[in-house]
Amino acid sequence: MVNRLTIDRALSSEGKSNEAIYETVARLVGNKVGRSIDVGCGRGHLHNFLDLSKQEYIGVDIIRYLDFPEKYQFIQSNLDTYCIDVSDNYADITCSLETIEHLENPRAFMRELFRITKPGGLLIVTTPNQLSLLSKLTLIFKNQFNAFQAAPGCYPAHITALLEIDLIRIAAECQLTSIEIHYPNHGRIPATSYAWPQWLGFRGRLFSDNAILSALKPVNVSK
Asked: Is residue 217 exposed (0-12), middle (13-18) or buried (19+ Cβ within 10 Å)?
Protein backbone atom coordinates (compact mmCIF):
# COMPACT_ATOMS: atom_id res chain seq x y z
CA MET A 1 0.00 0.00 0.00
CA VAL A 2 1.35 3.42 -0.97
CA ASN A 3 1.92 5.88 1.86
CA ARG A 4 -0.27 9.00 1.44
CA LEU A 5 2.67 11.24 2.37
CA THR A 6 4.67 9.72 -0.48
CA ILE A 7 1.90 10.56 -2.96
CA ASP A 8 1.56 14.07 -1.54
CA ARG A 9 5.29 14.63 -1.99
CA ALA A 10 5.02 13.56 -5.63
CA LEU A 11 2.00 15.78 -6.29
CA SER A 12 3.61 18.84 -4.69
CA SER A 13 6.35 18.79 -7.36
CA GLU A 14 3.65 19.25 -10.05
CA GLY A 15 5.38 16.55 -12.11
CA LYS A 16 7.72 18.83 -14.04
CA SER A 17 11.18 20.39 -13.91
CA ASN A 18 12.85 23.45 -15.38
CA GLU A 19 13.30 23.35 -19.16
CA ALA A 20 17.03 23.97 -18.79
CA ILE A 21 17.31 20.59 -17.04
CA TYR A 22 15.47 18.79 -19.84
CA GLU A 23 17.62 20.53 -22.46
CA THR A 24 20.87 19.58 -20.72
CA VAL A 25 19.78 15.98 -20.22
CA ALA A 26 18.75 15.74 -23.88
CA ARG A 27 22.17 17.05 -24.90
CA LEU A 28 23.86 14.38 -22.76
CA VAL A 29 21.66 11.66 -24.28
CA GLY A 30 22.42 13.00 -27.75
CA ASN A 31 21.97 10.51 -30.58
CA LYS A 32 22.17 7.39 -28.45
CA VAL A 33 19.83 4.68 -29.66
CA GLY A 34 17.63 2.42 -27.56
CA ARG A 35 15.13 2.23 -24.75
CA SER A 36 14.97 5.34 -22.54
CA ILE A 37 13.38 4.98 -19.13
CA ASP A 38 12.42 8.13 -17.22
CA VAL A 39 12.29 7.23 -13.51
CA GLY A 40 10.22 9.74 -11.58
CA CYS A 41 8.80 10.93 -14.90
CA GLY A 42 5.98 13.10 -13.57
CA ARG A 43 4.01 14.40 -16.53
CA GLY A 44 6.55 12.96 -18.98
CA HIS A 45 7.91 16.29 -20.25
CA LEU A 46 11.34 14.77 -20.96
CA HIS A 47 9.93 13.01 -24.03
CA ASN A 48 9.54 16.43 -25.72
CA PHE A 49 13.32 16.91 -25.66
CA LEU A 50 14.54 13.46 -26.75
CA ASP A 51 15.09 12.28 -30.30
CA LEU A 52 12.26 9.75 -30.38
CA SER A 53 13.24 8.59 -33.85
CA LYS A 54 16.16 6.91 -32.05
CA GLN A 55 14.84 6.39 -28.52
CA GLU A 56 11.83 4.55 -27.11
CA TYR A 57 10.39 6.50 -24.16
CA ILE A 58 9.00 4.81 -21.02
CA GLY A 59 7.86 6.62 -17.87
CA VAL A 60 8.00 5.35 -14.28
CA ASP A 61 6.42 7.04 -11.26
CA ILE A 62 4.25 6.45 -8.21
CA ILE A 63 1.22 8.06 -9.91
CA ARG A 64 0.21 8.59 -13.51
CA TYR A 65 -0.67 12.22 -14.16
CA LEU A 66 -3.73 12.71 -16.33
CA ASP A 67 -1.68 14.51 -18.98
CA PHE A 68 1.06 11.87 -19.21
CA PRO A 69 1.03 11.05 -22.97
CA GLU A 70 -1.17 8.04 -23.70
CA LYS A 71 1.07 6.84 -26.53
CA TYR A 72 3.97 6.03 -24.17
CA GLN A 73 4.28 3.11 -21.82
CA PHE A 74 3.89 3.95 -18.13
CA ILE A 75 5.07 1.74 -15.27
CA GLN A 76 3.71 2.49 -11.82
CA SER A 77 6.28 2.00 -9.06
CA ASN A 78 6.64 3.32 -5.53
CA LEU A 79 10.22 4.57 -5.76
CA ASP A 80 10.56 4.69 -1.97
CA THR A 81 10.42 0.88 -1.99
CA TYR A 82 13.47 0.90 -4.31
CA CYS A 83 11.91 -1.76 -6.50
CA ILE A 84 11.19 -0.61 -10.06
CA ASP A 85 8.94 -3.09 -11.81
CA VAL A 86 11.23 -3.89 -14.75
CA SER A 87 13.81 -6.59 -15.37
CA ASP A 88 17.56 -6.34 -14.94
CA ASN A 89 19.49 -4.62 -17.75
CA TYR A 90 16.26 -3.15 -19.13
CA ALA A 91 17.21 0.32 -20.39
CA ASP A 92 19.89 1.67 -22.69
CA ILE A 93 19.35 5.13 -21.16
CA THR A 94 18.16 5.59 -17.58
CA CYS A 95 17.20 9.10 -16.52
CA SER A 96 15.93 10.31 -13.16
CA LEU A 97 15.26 14.03 -13.06
CA GLU A 98 14.66 15.87 -9.78
CA THR A 99 13.58 12.67 -8.03
CA ILE A 100 16.36 11.42 -5.76
CA GLU A 101 15.87 14.35 -3.34
CA HIS A 102 12.27 13.17 -2.77
CA LEU A 103 13.38 9.75 -1.54
CA GLU A 104 14.52 8.43 1.82
CA ASN A 105 17.49 6.33 0.69
CA PRO A 106 19.49 7.70 -2.27
CA ARG A 107 21.96 4.81 -2.27
CA ALA A 108 19.25 2.17 -2.53
CA PHE A 109 17.65 4.20 -5.31
CA MET A 110 20.91 4.52 -7.26
CA ARG A 111 21.52 0.77 -6.95
CA GLU A 112 18.08 0.19 -8.46
CA LEU A 113 18.84 2.56 -11.35
CA PHE A 114 22.09 0.66 -11.87
CA ARG A 115 20.24 -2.67 -11.88
CA ILE A 116 17.80 -1.67 -14.61
CA THR A 117 20.47 -0.13 -16.86
CA LYS A 118 22.06 -2.30 -19.53
CA PRO A 119 25.85 -2.86 -19.45
CA GLY A 120 27.33 0.00 -21.45
CA GLY A 121 24.19 2.05 -20.84
CA LEU A 122 23.98 5.71 -19.83
CA LEU A 123 22.63 6.78 -16.44
CA ILE A 124 21.67 10.39 -15.66
CA VAL A 125 20.49 11.74 -12.29
CA THR A 126 19.65 15.36 -11.46
CA THR A 127 19.01 17.05 -8.12
CA PRO A 128 19.03 20.54 -6.60
CA ASN A 129 22.52 22.03 -6.47
CA GLN A 130 23.48 22.75 -2.86
CA LEU A 131 26.70 24.47 -4.00
CA SER A 132 25.02 27.28 -5.94
CA LEU A 133 25.48 30.81 -4.68
CA LEU A 134 21.76 30.96 -3.88
CA SER A 135 21.89 27.75 -1.82
CA LYS A 136 25.08 28.74 0.01
CA LEU A 137 23.69 32.15 0.97
CA THR A 138 20.44 30.56 2.13
CA LEU A 139 22.48 28.16 4.27
CA ILE A 140 24.45 31.06 5.79
CA PHE A 141 21.44 33.23 6.59
CA LYS A 142 18.75 30.60 7.25
CA ASN A 143 20.75 27.51 8.27
CA GLN A 144 19.13 25.38 5.55
CA PHE A 145 19.61 24.71 1.86
CA ASN A 146 17.42 26.76 -0.44
CA ALA A 147 15.56 23.87 -2.08
CA PHE A 148 14.88 22.24 1.30
CA GLN A 149 13.09 25.09 3.04
CA ALA A 150 9.51 24.58 4.22
CA ALA A 151 7.81 26.00 1.12
CA PRO A 152 5.63 24.83 -1.79
CA GLY A 153 7.62 22.41 -3.94
CA CYS A 154 10.43 22.22 -1.36
CA TYR A 155 10.15 20.54 2.07
CA PRO A 156 8.35 18.18 2.72
CA ALA A 157 8.59 17.21 -0.97
CA HIS A 158 12.40 17.53 -0.85
CA ILE A 159 13.78 15.49 2.03
CA THR A 160 17.29 14.38 1.01
CA ALA A 161 19.91 17.01 0.17
CA LEU A 162 22.93 15.76 -1.77
CA LEU A 163 26.14 17.55 -2.65
CA GLU A 164 27.84 16.79 -5.95
CA ILE A 165 30.52 14.85 -4.08
CA ASP A 166 27.73 12.66 -2.66
CA LEU A 167 26.47 11.93 -6.18
CA ILE A 168 30.00 11.08 -7.31
CA ARG A 169 30.64 8.80 -4.33
CA ILE A 170 27.32 6.98 -4.66
CA ALA A 171 27.91 6.47 -8.39
CA ALA A 172 31.40 5.09 -7.70
CA GLU A 173 30.01 2.76 -5.03
CA CYS A 174 27.67 1.39 -7.71
CA GLN A 175 30.68 0.69 -9.97
CA LEU A 176 29.59 3.30 -12.49
CA THR A 177 32.33 4.74 -14.70
CA SER A 178 32.94 7.94 -16.71
CA ILE A 179 31.32 9.85 -13.86
CA GLU A 180 30.80 13.55 -14.60
CA ILE A 181 28.88 16.48 -13.09
CA HIS A 182 27.14 18.98 -15.36
CA TYR A 183 25.14 22.15 -14.80
CA PRO A 184 22.13 23.47 -16.75
CA ASN A 185 23.40 27.06 -16.38
CA HIS A 186 20.08 28.28 -15.07
CA GLY A 187 19.75 29.68 -11.57
CA ARG A 188 17.94 32.34 -9.61
CA ILE A 189 19.71 35.47 -8.41
CA PRO A 190 19.41 35.59 -4.60
CA ALA A 191 16.63 37.80 -3.20
CA THR A 192 15.09 38.24 -6.67
CA SER A 193 12.83 36.35 -9.07
CA TYR A 194 15.33 36.79 -11.91
CA ALA A 195 17.75 34.27 -13.40
CA TRP A 196 21.48 34.87 -13.76
CA PRO A 197 22.21 36.19 -17.29
CA GLN A 198 24.15 33.48 -19.12
CA TRP A 199 25.35 35.94 -21.75
CA LEU A 200 27.39 37.72 -19.06
CA GLY A 201 29.18 34.48 -18.19
CA PHE A 202 27.11 33.47 -15.17
CA ARG A 203 27.37 29.72 -15.72
CA GLY A 204 28.42 26.58 -13.92
CA ARG A 205 28.23 25.47 -10.30
CA LEU A 206 27.69 28.82 -8.57
CA PHE A 207 24.95 29.97 -10.93
CA SER A 208 22.94 26.77 -11.52
CA ASP A 209 20.05 25.67 -9.34
CA ASN A 210 20.57 22.02 -10.27
CA ALA A 211 23.40 19.52 -10.63
CA ILE A 212 23.39 16.67 -13.15
CA LEU A 213 25.30 13.41 -12.84
CA SER A 214 26.09 11.35 -15.91
CA ALA A 215 27.82 7.97 -15.82
CA LEU A 216 28.11 4.68 -17.67
CA LYS A 217 27.40 1.16 -16.48
CA PRO A 218 30.46 -0.97 -17.24
CA VAL A 219 30.14 -3.64 -19.91
CA ASN A 220 31.76 -6.10 -17.52
CA VAL A 221 30.32 -5.64 -14.03
CA SER A 222 32.10 -7.31 -11.14
CA LYS A 223 29.93 -9.32 -8.75
From this structure: buried
CA-to-CA separations, 189 to 34, 135, 198, in angstroms, rounded: 38, 10, 12
CB contact set of 30 (below 8 Å; sequence gap of 6+): none
CA-derived radius of gyration, the chain: 17
DSSP 205-220: GGG-SEEEEEEE--SS
Per-residue three-class SS string for 67-117: CCCCCCEEEECCHHHCCCCCCCCCEEEEEECCCHHHCCCHHHHHHHHHHHE
| Torsion angle of C-alpha atoms 22, 114, 216, 74, degrees rounded to 10 | -40
Residue 69 burial class via C-beta count within 10 angstroms: exposed 0-12, middle 13-18, buried 19 and up = middle
Residue pLDDT, tens place only, 17-66: 899 999 999 999 999 999 999 999 999 999 999 999 999 999 999 999 99
Which of 214, 213, 220, 210 lies closest to 186 in space, CA to CA? 210
**Left, alpha or beta for 109 (phi > 0: left; psi -120 to 50: alpha)?**
alpha
DSSP 8-state secondary structure symbol assigned to residue 155: B
Instruction: Return the closest-CA partner of residue 66 out of 109, 14, 118, 24.
Output: 14
Distances (CA, A) of 2 to 30, 84, 111, 173: 35, 14, 21, 29
Average per-residue pLDDT for the chain: 93
